[in-house]
Amino acid sequence: MSDKPKVAFFDFACCEGCQLQVANLEEDIIKLLDLVDLVEFREVMTGSTSETYDIAFIEGSITRKSDEKRLKDIRERSKLLVAYGQCAVNGGINRLKNIWHSMDDVKKCVYGDDSYMPHLDTYPTKGVDEVVKVDLYIPGCPINRDEFLRMVKELSLGKIPRLPNHPVCVECKLKENICLFDKGVICLGPLARAGCGAICPSNGSPCEACRGTVDNPNKNAMHEILDKYNYTVEEIKRTINLFGVNPEVKK
Amino acid sequence: MAETYPHKEVIEKTSIYLPEVATLREKRPMTPFDTYFSFELRDHSLGHRPGQFAEISIPGIGEAPISVSSPPATDNRFEMVIRKVGTVTSAIHSLEVGEKVGVRGPYGTSFPMEALKGSSLLFICGGIGLVPARSAIKYALEHRDDYKNISILFGCKDPAQRLFVDELEQWKQRDDIVFYETVDTTDLSTYLEMSHMDLSYRGPVDEWKSKKWKDNVGVITTLFPKLDYVDPRETYAIVVGPPVMYKFAIMNLHDMELSDDHIILSLERRMKCGVGKCGHCQIEDIYVCQDGPVFYYNDISYIKGVI
Amino acid sequence: MELLKISKKNFLSFVDKKMSEKKSRIVGVIQKGSHFVFDDLQSSKDLRLDYDVTILPPKKYFQPQKEVMLKFAPKNVESYVAVNSYDPITIFGIHYYDLAAIYLMDRAFSDGDGDEHYIKKRENSLLIGSYPQKHFKQRFSRSVVKDQYYKVADLMLVDMGDEYVIEVVSEKGKNYLKGSQLKKNTYSLKQVEEAKTHIKDDQKLPVTVDIASEFLTRNYYHSVWKYFGDKCFSCGSCVFVCPTCYCFDVCEEIDLTLAAGQRIKVWDGCMLENFAVVADGHNFRRDRADRFKHRTFRKVKYLPDRYRYFGCVGCGRCADACTADIAGPNKVFKYILEKQ
């Protein structure tokens, strides 16, 4: 028992969909428990059995002062800290609110008359690495279970897990999908980081780059394509930055 | 329901991807990130020629191309110096004596030691480039009478990154060869940049912090003026080093009127399969793993960006 | 070459019979939405020999997207064992240009140290080729493929309307036909030739194959590389759908128990950013333009230099798959010629 890494899961501002991905590993979760010693995971167990962790998995974005304190505390007690899920990686969907100039407007829009209540306090969304050092990222909304398992396996073998640096188009082609552009649908596949198995395009929905982009996305080329499809600047921005991808092109 | 294919899985006895087993017999750190390894194959010699490489693997971790640094041997041993740069090389570093690795090879072209008989040799080695070059240097020293003048220039970043230090001292003492070495800097701060690496072995760092470097300081080309006259007709230069070194070394050799067919170099690319299939090491129409890693410069000088 | 003929109805019964015999895996071209793919046939009715082009070429049967080469227990070197997985396979309806591509792959995988993983798969295959019966706007095979497809095909089907003429190319193909309702060919060679070539390509390589390599070499420093490179997503679509792209990466896969693992080949391509990265992180083809140029030169110069056959078979898949609309090698030639 003792030589297995102590692993804990924590969540911040998120839908908890990523921990659900882990909890839903079905029979694999049993094998996973042979590999690691699960000491804290709110979705599947009560309480905590350890004060320190070999690996802390952090889900969700940071949206309040109190979050920062809690996160820093976890970091201090963890050897390795993994940001998993796009909210933790870069703020994810939550980051959309940062486009607004005032958080008061955001609160008013969402909570109406109750927006002044103290428990609804919020500040512009941060990814986990804007508060503490992150050792490993597992992107996606939600995370891909196979990728999660691969990373755990590689960590257990002492390998440094790496993310694919090719676009979703690769995985889409391997599945022999009909390209969505052929159907007149705009898809962010050519920019987006693969690793999801092109799950959205395979099921007829365009890629929204929920795993962020490859290291060097050719945004210029994407602007050209969107322009060809008569997209306005606003539409281009909205298409590209749903998951916090900066639509601006480096000059 | 579609049947799932294929159902037949067979053992492939003659796979070019199947490694042999070698046992780690000796291991010692050379710098904080370069370690010397001596491996032994079970029942035969590796059968390599100087300059060739082999694919070393650990199941579950992966495979990496590594230059052989020992000269051809009659026994089953071969030596490598491996720099810790990635997952595979890190895993090899953590092996204990007696543990095993997978070996495929030897692969690639070699330094044409036979063809160079009767000529003078000028070795120009930068940093870890000394590793493949050493197999040729040792070969030449073992067959000293076969060659005219032998000169060796060695440069590395700082005193703590020198490889094979005992041998460097021996070469310095020999009077039948010329040996000069230099360091880019005596400042050891490069180590700080590399601090993401495991620095549990600090030997040369600590040593050189207390010692003073008395030899040359400057890039490797600053050693060229120290050489006596080099006859361009009977001298062959063997150049191995980091990408940035080749350009300047070749410029200097041209100044010494060495022609391109008297310049021999060893190139590094991502030699993934080692057998000319996977495409990773291709530069233009050349597969480095098969047509190289050792080239006569005149065979590749037409390729833009080759060095 | 022996010519036979068979009615289309009898041909379909022949396919059904072969399927019921279960002596080999039977693959053919079937419809997938608005496109076509090679897949296992469920019934001869699904076979669509009137297709324009398939999304992926048949290379996937000889170099699978994920191919297990070795099995092992992690960290146990003694446990390495090389494995290969294949069944006897018969593929119906491979267009002649895809056969030409298979010929090229055969050369590559048997060159030097042969790759048994590929060779065994090929040895256990029977290839039944055909000639396009439908236009495809990106195709320019006629201008780049000569007759190298006859070197790998076992049988070729020629669509004569209600009947197929069968070109019996190999002994293996001849044996495969035993027991089918074949007749002697009654068409003239001219009629057969006309049926083989009546679908004209919409595109062509703007220069002849013989001078293409030299033409491109002369334009090594042309602005075309940057122009197309700037538009390129480096998404790899062009190389994954290409029938003559066979580059691969080697990866480890480990079972969740950590007790078993395998070393696999997976498709890789020179258009992807990390393809030419070496251990210390240096990227030998960092710029999109360099990668774009490398791919084009590989098809037009490097493969022909090595194997004496043009490396592009003009199938047009890359041009079709390319979102930026820059991938067709003929487009590079066109651009250079227009700029001169």
Word description of this protein:
The complex is a heterotrimer of chains A (251), B (307) and C (340). Chain A has 251 residues and is an alpha/beta fold. Chain A contains ten helices and five strands. A five-stranded parallel β-sheet of chain A has the order 2-1-3-4-5, sandwiched between helices. Chain A is globular, with a radius of gyration of 19 Å. The relative contact order of chain A is 0.12. Chain B is α/β, with parallel strands linked by helices and 307 residues long. Chain B folds into two domains: 20-107, Elongation Factor Tu (Ef-tu), domain 3 (Beta Barrel), CATH 2.40.30; 120-266, Nucleotide-binding domain of ferredoxin-NADP reductase (FNR) module (Rossmann fold). In chain B, 20% of the residues lie in helices and 28% in strands. Chain B has helices at 87-93, 130-142, 165-173, 190-193, 203-210, 243-255, 288-291, 297-300; strands at residues 9-11, 20-29, 34-41, 53-58, 62-67, 77-83, 100-107, 120-126, 150-156, 178-183, 216-217, 235-240, 263-266, 282-283, 286-287, 294-296. Chain B has a seven-stranded mixed β-sheet with strand order 11-10-9-8-12-13-16, with helices on both faces. In chain B, helix 3 (165-173) links the parallel strand 9 (150-156) and strand 10 (178-183). Chain B starts with 8 loop residues before the first strand and ends in a 7-residue tail after the last helix. Chain C has two domains: 2-58 and 85-197, no CATH class; 209-246 and 270-339, no CATH class. Chain C contains eleven helices and twelve strands. Chain C has helices spanning 8-21, 96-110, 116-123, 171-176, 189-197, 209-218, 224-231, 237-240, 288-307, 317-321, 329-339, and strands at residues 2-7, 25-32, 35-40, 66-73, 76-85, 89-95, 125-130, 155-159, 163-168, 183-184, 248-254, 261-267. The longest helix of chain C is centred in the last third of the chain and has 20 residues, at 288-307. The radius of gyration of chain C is 21 Å and the shape is globular. The chains are: A alpha/beta (251), B alpha/beta (307), C alpha+beta (340). The interface between B and C is large, with 52 and 64 residues. Strand 1 of chain B pairs antiparallel with strand 5 of chain C.
